[in-house]
Design a protein that fits this description.
The chain is mostly helical. The protein has one domain: Four Helix Bundle (Hemerythrin (Met), subunit A) (Up-down Bundle). 75% of the residues lie in helices and 0% in strands. It has five helices and no strands. The chain has helices at 2-18, 25-46, 50-64, 82-106, 109-129. Helix 2 (25-46) packs antiparallel against helix 3, helix 3 runs antiparallel to helix 4 and helix 4 (82-106) runs antiparallel to helix 5 (109-129).
Length: 133
Amino acid sequence: MKKMLLVSLVLGSVLLMAAPAKVNVEMNKTMQSLEVSMALIQKGFLYNQRGRVKKGIASLRSELKNIDSFVIENDKDIKFNAKEYAVKETKALDMLASGILEDFDKGNKDVVLINFQQMLNRCVTCHALVRKW
């Protein structure tokens, strides 16, 4: 009896650990694309190439429209609408992206870098609040 219990306990533990974690493939694709877009924008800054910046911003905007692929769940005990917050942040990121392109064309490199830093800060804040980093 003890052996049966021990075997079932070990087998159950192994199966539990072997079970794949629930992964939202679409969300992961979107997040990876957002990261690639941000890297492309940054590379455009480094090489002073408007085309790369513009392409990165276009890609970023396209991916921001895919917010519905994100798994956003509210904690039951917190009065915080995570979905509403994420939508608000995507709009803010879109506005910052517009500013980056305009200021890049004007040669306002300091403002461009400040806006890019604000974009990164918004990404990290959203990860901390919504994705529970």
